[in-house]
Amino acid sequence: MGIKKTSKEDILKHSIGLFKINGYYNTSMANVANACGLLKGSIYYHFKNKEEIGLESLKYIHKYFKEHIYKIAYQDNLSSKNKIKLFVKKIDDYFLHSEGGCLLGNLALEVSSENVLFKNEIREYFTNWEKALTHILKDNYSTTKAIELSKEHVALTQGEIMMMNLYNSSDNYLKVGKKIIALLE
pTM, whole model, 2 decimals? Predict the structure, then answer.
């Protein structure tokens, strides 16, 4: 059998899926290697340990959100109403096609009290989400009210992601996006 080559990004993508479905503690390096079609030792070429894979997985998703979702809030060529609609659509596209829910939300509950590096990355992800929403909403609301609404929306979204996975229904999850869009109509 030939040696299979894989990239660091491929390992991260497989790891993210495993962490979301199985949890961080229930995912081993052997699980990651198996999902990638590699021998366990091959993973160590790219990562020194599971903690590094976990942290890099969090950073990978955070980077995706910054580049594809959060940046929408700062596009001067869009109205606030169009920004919020596109913002919600992109978040929906991500979470409705992502088995296992939100990795950052899941790991916030599972490991952030024990791992300060994970906690800091997760906190920055949610803070950036709130800041992006606040930036959109402050055209129509005071800064204080925009911050309050942003925090509420992020919390509602995360709660409904959990409920969507628990009940296998996106009905209530989709209502959260409609609620934030309605704030600008």
Answer: 0.93
